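Notes taken during the Thursday session

The instructor put the following on the board and asked us to keep it in front of us for the whole hour. The protein is LuxR family transcriptional regulator. We were told not to look anything up and to reason only from what is written here. First, the residues (767 in total):
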Amino acid sequence: MGGRAKPRGNLPAEFSSFVGRRLQIQQIKTHLAASRLVTLTGPGGVGKTRLALRTAADLERGVADGVWFVELGGLTDARLVPKAVMTSVGLRDESGLWPLSRLIDHISAKRLLLVLDNCEHLQDACAVLTDSLLREAPELRVLATSRQPLGVTGEQVVHIDPLTVPAGGAPFVLARTAQAEAVALLVARANEAGADLVLTDANVGDAVELVRRLDGIPLAIELAAVRLRTLSPGQLVERLNDRFHLLTGGSKAAPARHQTLEATISWSHDLLDPEERTVLRRLAVFPASFTLGAAERVCGGEPVAPDVLGALGALVDRSFVNVERAGGDARYRLHETTREFALIRLREAGEEAVVRRTQLSFFAEMCRGADSDGRDADDETTLANLEALEVEADNIRAALRYCLADPGSVQTGLEMAAGLGRFWTSRALSEGVQWIEALLERDGGETSARARALFVRSYLAAAQGDPTAGLQASADAAQLTRGADDVLRVRILATRAALHVLDGDISEARRWSDEASTLANILDDDIAHAAAAQAEALIASLDGDFVRMRDVGLAAAERCRRAHEIYMLSTHLTSAGVGSMMLGDHSAAESSLVGALHATLAIDDRPGLVMRLQALAANAAMARHAEHSARLLGAADMLRTEGGYDVSPFIRPLVEQAATRAATRLGRERYERERNVGAHLDRDAAIRLALGTDLAHNPEPAPAGPNPLSKRERQVAELAAAGLSNKEIATRLFVSERTVETHMYNILNKLGLNSRTKIADWVLPTG
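Then, after some discussion, the predicted C-alpha cells were revealed:
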C-alpha cells in the first residue's frame, strides 16, 4: 500500500511557531461542521489570518477537493474579487466566461473549503460572491476573516479575542504562567528573535505585566518581543507605559485595544532610525508582497536616498516586515495593520505622490518588457516573465489604478496594458479587457500607445469569441496606423482578418489577410511574416488549399524559431499539422502537432493544450487509430470542461468528424468506453497519451553531460529531490501549481526519467 496522497490546495507554509488558540480552533471546526460560512471577526492584529490558516491546515486532509487560501488584502477593486478567487483555486481567466460563472462551473460539484482572508475593505463584493457560490455549490464551505461580519444568510460569526493573559494577583506559579497564551507567544517570539528569554521568578511578573499592557494582541506582542534582545521585560514595560500615557491623555483606565496596537506600533516605529522610518513609510505603497529590487527602486528615491537593503533587514528583524522565502529568492510583505500605519506616515511626510510615481515607473518597465515580440527572449525567459507577472499582479493593478486616477499617466497606463497582452490572453482575459477599455476611455496618450492598446483589445476579443467588439477595436487600430509600415500594423490587419472569419465574412477576411501579407513582404521581418501567416493559413484552410496551409505553417514556424516567437509557433505548427492531415500524410501531421504541443506546454497555454489534443485526435481518427482517437477526445473534453473553454470554431469541424469516424469504426458502445478512459486521465497522463509515450517504458537517465535543464527547471528538480510536493514547490517559487506540473513534465522528459523519485539520483551527482 502507498502512503496517503498529499492534500490538494494552496495553503501557504508557516514560517514561525503557532502558539495557543486550541479552544478557538475547536470552536471554529465545530461551527464549520454545522454552518457552511464561518467568519472570524476582530480588530487588526488580533491573529485572525493565522488562526484561519491553522484551522484550515488541520482540516486539509479531510476535504476531498482541497483547501484554498484567497488573500484579498492587496486587492482594492471589488470587481476583481471573483478573479482573485479563480486564481487562488488554480483557474485562469482565459475562457469566454465571466469569472463568477467560471467559478460556479468549477466548484459546483466539488467538496472544498475556501479561506477568504481580509474581506473588510471589500465586504459587499465578498458577501455577494460568497452567497452566490454557496447557493450553487452544496458541498462548499467558506472560512472568512474580516473586521466585521459579511452579512450573508446562514453566516456563523466567531469573534476572535486577544490571547489569554494570566489572571491578576500574585504570586505567579511559573509553570502555569508560562502556559498562558500571551506569555507563551512573547517567549516564543523573543527567542525566535534571538533574545534568549527564560522566565524566572524574578522576571515573570514583568512578563505578565508586559502582555497585559499589550492587551494580549498578537501583533503588538510580536513587535514588542524583538526589543527583548536589548531590554529586560521590566525596562520594556516602563517604556511602553510612557507611550500609552502619552496617547491616552493620562487616563487611568487601560487603553482601548486599537489604542494599544497603535501605541505599540508607534513606539516601535519611533525606535527606528531615520532611514528605517523612511523605508517603512515608502513600503506602504505596495499592496502585496514585493522583491528587494522593487523596494530599492521605490524606496530609494529623493529627497532622501536611504540604504534600502540595510533598512529592510532591520525592519524584518523588528517584525515590521515579513519575509517569504522562495528558493534562493525572497519576497517581503507588510502586515495590513502596519501598512495602514505606514501609509499615514507617508502622507504626513508629503511623499505619497512621488513614491507612487516611482512605483508606477518600476512596474511600467516590467510590463513594457513583457511585450518583446519574442525577439530577445528564449522560451525559458518567456515563461519566467509570465510567472513574474502572475506574482506581481496586485502591484501591477495598483499601478494601473494610479494611471486611471492621474490624467498625466494615461500614456503609461496604455503602454502597460498593451505590454501585458500575452499575460491577459493566457492568465487574465476578462480582466485585461476591463483595464484596456477603462484606459481607452480616458483622454490622452500618444497615437502609437492607443493603437497598440486597441490591437491588444482586438485579439482579446478574438480569444473571447467576440467578433463584434474585436472588429470595432481592430478598425480603430487600423485607422490610427494608416500609412504606417511596421509590424504592429501587420498584426492588426491579420487579427482583423481572423475576426472577420469568426464573423462569417470570408470576403473581408481575405481582403485584410492579403493586405497583411503584402506589408509583411515589404518589411521582410520574421515576426511580421509570422503574424501575416496566421491569417493566410486560416484562409487557405477555408479555401481547401491544404498544400498552401501546410507550407505556410511550416515556413512561418521556422521564422518563429529564429525569432524565439513561441506563442505563434504553436499556431503555425498546428496549421502545418492540419494541412498534412488533410493531405493524408498522417506521420508528418503527427510530427507537426506534437511540436505544437511541446510549444504549448512551454508557455502553459491551457486552451491551446485542449486544441492540440483535439487535432491529434482528428489525425488519429483519419489514420484509422480509432481507439487512440477516442481516448484523446475524452482527455481533451475533460481538460476543456475543467478549464471552462468552448470548442474553438476553427477546429470544431475536425472534432466532430473525429468523433464520428472513431464511433463508426469502434461501434458506439466501445467508442464511449474508450472515450471514458481518456476522460478519467489526469493532465500529465493525457499529455503522455498525446505524445504516444509511456513514462513507465522510458529509458533510464541519459549519461552525464551538459546540464539539459533550464535555471527554473533546476530549481524545481532540486526541490522535488528534497521531497517537496508540487504545491510546496509552487509556494516556494511563487508560481502556480500547474506551472510546476509543466516544469516537472519537461524535467522528466529531458532527463529520460520514469518517476519523480528518480530525480534525486540525477540531482545529487549533478549538483
